[in-house]
Write a structure and sequence with these properties.
Blueprint lengths: L1 H20 L1 E8 L3 H14 L3 E8 L1 H9 L6 E3 L4 H7 L9 E6 L1 E6 L21 E4 L5 H12 L3 H4 L3 E4 L2 H10 L4 E5 H4 L2 H6 E5 L8 E7 L6 H12 L1 H9 L6
Parallel strand pairs: 1-2, 1-3, 6-7, 6-8
Antiparallel strand pairs: 3-10, 4-10, 5-8, 5-9
Helix pairs in contact: 2-11, 3-4, 10-11
Length: 253
């Protein structure tokens, strides 16, 4: 009996020690990063035993509001440089905003409609495109870029009755996958989804039509794993992290 109790105490102490040594890194990330971070987190955790990376995805504007309200994140990875600067204001940040990638805006159109998005944004005038999806420009940089491109081509006002807005870029891609929209503006990382590739045609919107989607990050004070946050940020900006981002449609900053 005494031996069994000693073994039980040893097991409990060992479990407590493992729990104490485990570190949880909490990351707030733009929805456009979801495919890339899925791979990056797996690689990072494999190289850092005992580390757990928990990522909350959403629109950069919505995540900024959460951080300003005290959400306990260690790191913020946004779809532009402005939102990290806003998130870090009022003492929430612990370092400068750093660029880590350049996103690419894509126009996707249902393949069965017989329309070629490579014709340019003027193709959106076609009446067969009853619903055109984009992320909310007030919250999502990709949505703001889509609005800028449509305004550049003189289409923003004309297309208003047919526009549907997703809360973030991932939700916009879901609209396209579910058939809730016939065309839409999404991130190149989302356009690489096998279902969207099979069901539609995609065209990269020229960067001359919208401000560059330079994605930025910032370290935050709200979390409990500052050293791990620094390590993950360095990983993303290093050779392996950049290779992962490139595979998912992002360019170097």
């Amino acid at each position: 009996m005494a031996s069994a109790l000693r073994l039980l105490r040893a097991a409990l102490l060992l479990g407590a020690g493992l729990a104490a040594s485990a570190q949880v890194l909490r990351v707030a990330a733009a929805a456009s990063l979801q495919p890339a971070l899925g791979e990056a987190v797996g690689r990072f955790e494999a190289a850092h035993p005992g580390a757990s990376v928990q990522v909350s995805f959403g629109a950069s504007g919505s995540l900024t509001a959460q951080i300003q309200q005290g959400a306990p994140f260690d790191l913020f990875l946004a779809a532009d440089l402005d939102y990290p600067a806003k998130a870090a204001a009022n003492g929430h940040g612990r370092g400068p905003v750093f660029p880590f990638a350049v996103g690419r805006l894509v126009l996707w159109i249902r393949r069965d409609l017989g329309l070629d998005p490579a014709q340019g944004l003027a193709v959106l005038r076609d009446a067969r495109l009853a619903r055109i999806a984009l992320a909310n420009p007030k919250l999502a940089p990709y949505g703001a870029a889509a609005e800028a491109a449509l305004r550049h081509e003189g289409l923003w006002e004309a297309l208003q009755p047919r526009l549907v807005f997703g809360g973030n870029i991932a939700q916009t891609a879901q609209y396209l996958q579910a058939g809730a929209a016939d065309a839409g503006f999404i991130a190149a990382s989302e356009a690489a989804h096998p279902d969207l590739q099979a069901r539609g045609r995609a065209w990269t919107v020229p960067e001359t039509l919208h401000p560059p989607l330079l994605q930025g990050g910032v370290l935050l004070k709200g979390g409990s794993a500052p050293a791990l946050a620094e390590a993950f940020a360095a990983f993303l900006r290093g050779p392996e992290g950049r290779a992962i981002l490139q595979r998912h449609g992002f360019g170097p900053p």
